[in-house]
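Hello forum,

I keep getting stuck at the same step: I have a sequence, I want structure tokens, and every attempt I make locally crashes halfway through. Rather than fight my setup again tonight, could one of you with a working pipeline run this one for me? It's a single chain of 91 residues.
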Amino acid sequence: MNKLELIARLKTDADISRMEASRVVQIFFDDMAETLARGDRVEIRGLCSFYVKNYKSYTGRNPKTGDKVRIKPKKLPFFKPGKELKERVDY
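Reply #2:
Ran it on my machine without issues. Output:
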């Protein structure tokens, strides 16, 4: 399911206009992104959680040349499925 399919499903199930459904989905995604950007965790009980993982800098290698390259510290978002989602997928 992609964003457009989610909007269409929300429009049908909630009996609201496409513009309203689109706005609801956009608000939801924007708030999740802002929360993760602050370094906070997003948890949707029974479904999943999103969190930010911090990585320290390290020395890597350029695969083409084999030269050592310094990798800067970074933060990456991670997804962790909830227990109910795992059970529904592996029924």
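The chain has a mean pLDDT of 95. If your local run keeps crashing, start a new thread with the error log.
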